Amino acid sequence: MTAEQVASGFTDHHGYESLGLPSWQDVAECLSAETEILAQARQSSAPDGIKEVLDAIDDEDGDGVEFAEFMAAFYGNDVGVAGLSLALSAARGATFYSCSSGLDSHHHAEYPMVGVVPDAQRACLLAELAERAGCGIGQQWGRWYLYAESVSATHALGQLILEQRDAFDALPEPKWVDGLVEQLERINDY
Questions:
Q1: What sign results for the dihedral spanned by CA atoms 111, 142, 139, 165?
Q2: 71-111, pLDDT tens digit by residue?
Q3: pLDDT over threshold 80, residue 10
Q4: 3-state DSSP call for residue 19?
Q5: Cα angle value 94/32/110 (rounded, 5°)
Q6: Best CA proximity match to 81, nearest among 96, 67, 70, 68
Q7: DSSP category for residue 11
Q8: pTM for the full model?
């Protein structure tokens, strides 16, 4: 896989865009915001507690600016899988898909899922962490689909990856990392 392929999207999955090379600090901030929303959603009696919490936050913000700034922590991904998507990208896995599942037509997955292509060394570590978090791994054409019964498990996997950041950082970076920032800049300037 090349930097150009990762930047431009090597699959066609519902407009998913590369997350680039987020820092572990970006991951920690996203997971922290996600933790707050998931905790509030657990207290909700609404069929879609996450949507209810996000709608309430949006309603409190008259002009929408604060809500947009808050949502920026999720990099355009659904709450419940955003932390995992960012953690996989920071661990230098090439993500290509994410969906938290849900009750409306906006969601297309039956259950929370994130797509990633890990190299062999990252795959071993990810498989161990996925099992610990209660997540499954489906594979198709060399692509992994990490999935779970609930966003609590995908969030937990994101947390485990963050906890193991030193192990991921100790691995050699995939070849596609070199030049990814430049490729993303080229696409954004296009």
A1: negative
A2: 888 888 889 999 999 999 999 999 988 888 765 556 567 78
A3: no
A4: coil
A5: 55
A6: 96
A7: S
A8: 0.89
